[in-house]
Specification:
mainly beta; Fructose-1,6-Bisphosphatase, Chain A, domain 1; 12% helix
């Protein structure tokens, strides 16, 4: 988060985990720049944007080959920013769908 925030890139967020004896109790992701918040607790997840709250659910997809996989990568940033933060070689991978 700090890198994107410091450089003014509007794709930063805050991630908070609440665990007890190694067991996840709740997790929250907030993206203040766009007003989105995701909250997950055992058996329940919600998405909130502005004054609207909606339940979250998994897709039910059981096969990785059919799933959508998303991630962020340092390659979203440009070379001068990378150099300023000492980012070295970017390692990327993709899921083989075969």
């Amino acid at each position: 988060m700090a890198r994107a925030f410091i450089t003014g890139v509007p794709i930063w967020g805050i991630l908070i985990d609440c665990s007890h004896h190694g067991v996840a109790i709740a997790g929250i992701m907030s993206q203040p720049f766009i007003g989105e918040t995701f909250l997950g607790t055992p058996g329940r997840g919600t998405y909130q944007r502005n004054d609207q709250t909606m339940p979250l659910r998994t897709s039910g997809m059981t096969e990785l080959a059919s799933a959508r996989v998303f991630t962020t990568t340092p390659s979203l940033f440009n070379a001068p920013v990378d150099a300023a933060f000492g980012v070295g070689e970017v390692v990327a991978f993709r899921v083989d769908r075969n």
